[in-house]
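Working notes for the structural subgroup meeting. M.R. asked for a predicted model of this chain before we commit to crystallization trials. I am recording the input and output together here so anyone reviewing the notebook later can reproduce the run.

Input as submitted:
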Amino acid sequence: MSSRFVGSAVAVVVLCASAQASVIVSNSQALWNWRVTNGGQVVGTENFNGFANGFYSAPVSDTLGNVVWTASATGGLYVDNGYFSTNNPVPLTFTFNPGVRAVAGNIFGTDINFNVVTCVVSVTLATGFTYEGISSSPTDFVGFYSTAADISSMTIVPSPLATGAVFATIDNLYLAVPAPGAAALIGLAGLVARRRRA
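Returned structure, recorded in token form:
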């Protein structure tokens, strides 16, 4: 397995664009998917399999649907067989442009050799809402759905239950993105509105 630099330790923090945002948290991927599709959007999935194994200087950006996601961490990022992680035991931050109505992922902690370790995962929202849970598997799911303001960023910080460094790691990143025909309809509506003003 790969080795990484060991530093200090570690919460998954989701920051919303507005302090007024109401966020629903779910550990059920089926329920989160249902909420996204009922909201008129589709689930976009970044599985990180398109990234070669190894070190990446931060930030790293890619596009999912119409959303540009950017990942950053002090000391860089590291990918190992689809696991997207930090190169040091520091927070892993994702930003979304534009902001998204919902974000989720298989979020967990790994040791320096990418072995999954049982750890505490905390989620604190800009509103002050905090979610905490124990993560012990790369299939552990945490999803957030905002009923108000879009979610503009997410910071992952796992805390060790015992001694040793824990690296923030994600296997899949899920975002609520517009349905394929929605962008075309929005563009058409803008064209019609321009014609009316002409």
